């Protein structure tokens, strides 16, 4: 903010206005052009979060035409002031490093303020030590003049001390900004070191330990928490990377150290969540849960690990000279997050534009995705008469601020030739891919749920009581669906924040166009001519009519006779560009809203999936509780039968007395007559001994049962082994018998065939009449 004040003051050749708190409260201001442009309602009055956290500092969206003429009232102001947020991006590492740096500087400033307050308190106490103490025990009531004099002296001394302090704290309007005290440097540095040891190092060390646990590596650290590298080349590369990172971020760190706690303060860059939830002290966890962060970060589980024994996993079909493509893609990914930056713009006297917008941490002037770079490229590549007025250039600036994530070509070239990757994330593609992945997972989850319900249906319709515990466990586990709902809710929320920023841009743009139209067309005749020309010529805007044509037109167009052709062309060209930019902004909002609608439909589907799963789990639990419901109904009926007796006993003292009298008398008489009471009196065993005896007896019974069980197991095991041996022996004997029978059967068949042959021979000879012929049934005698 101090730079903007200094730039505007130098433009008019004046000094910066005095913005002291007393003057701001009394509404005092200098009568200069700079003071009019930077008055309270148009500058510091629009600052939000001046005394709160650093991430809550921003200028409220604002656009208004303002007069810069101090000596007269200007009916048609020629200057415009505009504040507007816009979307950009940053690497996650740089964001986290500078977030820690900002927290350290804020801590140092708080400690310094406490020390200054303590020193001021000591000075006030020292000043009051010279005052005479009032004797409250014996006040001198008879001398009112002495009390009045003491009161006046006290008031005058307090007034002088306050005046001296104000003069010492109030800088001169014509003087330069005072430099920081040299003595405060070492003190602030020591405070920063203490805070670094207290909080910063703890956070960084915790992050490093978690990182080492995730990747499963064991890296040695020295006393300064630097990684010990065994190979000299590795140490050289790490030192070179650390040196390069320190060189690129040195300028931004010095800028934060000098102006972060300055008056007026510096506005650090804010993440998407910090811009919307500005009351949060820290958004570190939410920033690492952004959709863009997840899309540009490779999970640790996807990295290929190396083993000295087995080598690289997943590199079986990878040639050594080509390398692993997946490893190259994973290692080249850089984690990025979406940021919300601010545009401050002043148009001075229709001739000059002063703009203020941040750049990425550590980025140089060749940053392709930077707003300033894109504006210079667009103006340099434009047509000769693309910018006819300073307001056309302002429209280009507004368009480039809003077009960061919607220009697909900005990531691959710089306008002249192909360049290296600029690391700018493709935000819309990342959101579309994230929504598609969740939709696919939702479809898979629905398929699993239908399979579970089909299995449950078979169990319900079976005649036997089936076991549904396998179905109940996955139905009661809602963690997968809960993760899906969390992710899709984050997507819907981030799209809503981005739509909010774009709609704010559209509102500020409308106000800017209205103010510029009043500046270019104070009488309104050009607007009327433009609208009529747009209607009659189907959108083609012509130059101002000639004098002969104007004479034949209506009286509303006669005012244009005194205006020159350049003014008409300037207005028409601005109007065309303004309408095109408004249409672009509306299209960008429509793209984001379409993504939000798709994400919301997916979120509704995930919610329906959770409801169906819970309903199915309730059905399974109800079906399993059917056997218990009958028993509970029985006990309920029994309890109702005892309800009357219970109420009678509890409400009537006579009934309780009668019952207790007969119960005590009968039980005591039974114990005495049976000898139980006498036996208890003669028993010398105490209660502790009885307890130990019971434990001893039960322990012996348990040991005996264990021994019998072990014996039975041993006998059973032996019996099984004997059965196995007998089975093997029987199998062997059966094989031998089978072979023997086969041999005997062959021998008997051979003998029978020989006998048959001899018998037949004898029968044929006729020596044996008792033998008959052999037929189909066999040999008959």
UniProtKB/TrEMBL annotation:
What keywords does the record list, in alphabetical order?
A: Coiled coil, Membrane, Transmembrane, Transmembrane helix
Q: Composition bias, kind Basic and acidic residues: at what positions?
A: 716-729
Region described as Disordered: spans on this chain = 119-147, 164-187, 716-781
Where in the sequence does UniProt note compositional bias of the Polar residues kind? 128-139, 164-175
Taxonomic superkingdom: Eukaryota
Where, by residue number, does the polypeptide cross the bilayer? 634-655
Where, if anywhere, are coiled coils annotated?
A: 575-609
Can you name this protein?
Putative ankyrin repeat protein
Q: In the record, what lineage is assigned to the organism producing the protein? A: Eukaryota, Fungi, Dikarya, Ascomycota, Pezizomycotina
């Amino acid at each position: 903010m101090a730079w903007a004040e200094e730039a505007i003051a130098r433009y008019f050749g004046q000094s910066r206005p005095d913005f002291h708190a007393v003057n701001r409260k009394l509404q005092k201001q200098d009568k200069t052009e700079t003071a009019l442009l930077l008055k309270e309602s148009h500058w510091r009055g629009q600052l939000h979060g001046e005394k709160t956290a650093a991430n809550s500092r921003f200028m409220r969206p604002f656009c208004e035409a303002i007069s810069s003429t101090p000596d007269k009232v200007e009916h048609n102001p020629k200057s415009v002031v505009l504040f507007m947020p816009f979307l950009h991006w940053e690497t996650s590492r740089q964001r986290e490093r500078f977030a820690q740096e900002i927290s350290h500087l804020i801590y140092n400033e708080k400690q310094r303020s406490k020390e200054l307050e303590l020193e001021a308190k000591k000075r006030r106490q020292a000043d009051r030590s010279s005052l005479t103490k009032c004797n409250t025990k014996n006040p001198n009531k008879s001398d009112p003049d002495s009390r009045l004099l003491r009161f006046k002296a006290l008031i005058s001394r307090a007034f002088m001390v306050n005046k001296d302090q104000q003069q010492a704290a109030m800088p001169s309007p014509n003087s330069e900004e005072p430099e920081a005290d040299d003595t405060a440097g070492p003190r602030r540095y020591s405070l920063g070191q203490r805070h670094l040891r207290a909080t910063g190092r703890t956070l960084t060390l915790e992050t490093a330990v978690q990182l080492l646990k995730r990747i499963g590596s064991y890296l040695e650290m020295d006393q300064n928490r630097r990684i010990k590298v065994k190979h000299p080349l590795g140490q050289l590369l790490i030192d070179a990377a650390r040196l390069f990172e320190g060189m690129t971020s040195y300028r931004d760190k010095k800028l934060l150290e000098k102006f972060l706690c300055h008056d007026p303060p510096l506005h650090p860059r804010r993440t998407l969540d910090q811009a919307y939830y500005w009351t949060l002290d820290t958004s570190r966890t939410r920033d690492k849960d952004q959709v863009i962060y997840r899309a540009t970060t490779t999970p640790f589980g996807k990295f290929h690990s190396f083993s000295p024994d087995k080598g690289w996993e997943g590199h079986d079909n990878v040639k050594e000279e080509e390398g692993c493509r997946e490893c190259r893609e994973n290692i080249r990914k850089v984690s990025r997050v979406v940021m919300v930056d601010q545009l401050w713009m002043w148009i001075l006297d229709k001739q000059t534009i002063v703009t203020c917008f941040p750049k990425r941490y550590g980025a140089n002037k060749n940053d392709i995705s930077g707003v300033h770079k894109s504006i210079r490229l667009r103006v340099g590549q434009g047509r000769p008469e693309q910018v006819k007025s300073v307001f056309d250039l302002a429209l280009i600036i507004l368009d480039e601020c809003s077009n960061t994530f919607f220009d697909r070509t900005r990531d691959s070239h710089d306008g002249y030739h192909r360049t290296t990757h600029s690391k700018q994330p493709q935000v819309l593609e990342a959101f579309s891919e994230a929504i598609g992945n969740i939709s696919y997972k939702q479809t898979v989850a629905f398929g699993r749920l239908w399979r579970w319900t089909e299995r449950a249906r078979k169990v319900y319709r079976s005649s036997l009581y089936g076991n549904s515990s396998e179905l109940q466990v996955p139905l009661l586990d809602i963690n997968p669906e809960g993760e899906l709902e969390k992710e899709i809710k984050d997507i819907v929320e981030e799209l809503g924040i981005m739509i909010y920023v774009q709609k704010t841009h559209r509102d500020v743009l409308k106000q800017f166009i209205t103010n510029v139209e009043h500046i270019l067309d104070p009488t309104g005749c050009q607007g009327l001519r433009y609208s009529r020309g747009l209607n009659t010529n189907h959108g083609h805007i012509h130059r101002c009519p000639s004098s002969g044509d104007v004479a034949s037109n209506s009286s509303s167009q006669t005012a244009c006779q005194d205006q020159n052709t350049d003014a008409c062309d300037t207005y028409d060209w601005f109007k065309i560009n303004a309408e095109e930019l408004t249409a672009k902004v509306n299209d960008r909002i429509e793209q984001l809203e379409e993504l939000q609608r798709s994400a919301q439909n997916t979120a509704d589907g995930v919610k329906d999936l959770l409801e169906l799963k819970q309903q199915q789990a309730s059905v399974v639990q109800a079906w399993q509780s059917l056997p218990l419901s009958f028993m509970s109904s029985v006990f309920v009926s029994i309890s109702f039968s005892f309800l009357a007796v219970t109420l009678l006993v509890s409400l009537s003292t006579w009934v309780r007395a009668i019952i207790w009298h007969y119960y005590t008398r009968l039980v005591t008489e039974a114990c005495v007559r049976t000898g139980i009471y006498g036996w208890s009196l003669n028993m010398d065993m105490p209660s502790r001994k009885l307890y130990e005896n019971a434990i001893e007896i039960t322990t012996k019974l348990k040991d005996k049962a264990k021994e019998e069980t072990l014996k039975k197991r041993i006998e059973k095991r032996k019996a099984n082994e004997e059965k196995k041996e007998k089975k093997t022996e029987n199998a062997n004997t059966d094989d031998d018998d089978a072979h023997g029978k086969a041999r005997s059967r062959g021998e008997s068949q051979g003998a029978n065939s020989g006998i048959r042959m001899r018998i037949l021979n004898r029968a044929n000879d006729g020596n044996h009449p008792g033998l008959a012929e052999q037929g189909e049934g066999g040999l008959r005698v």
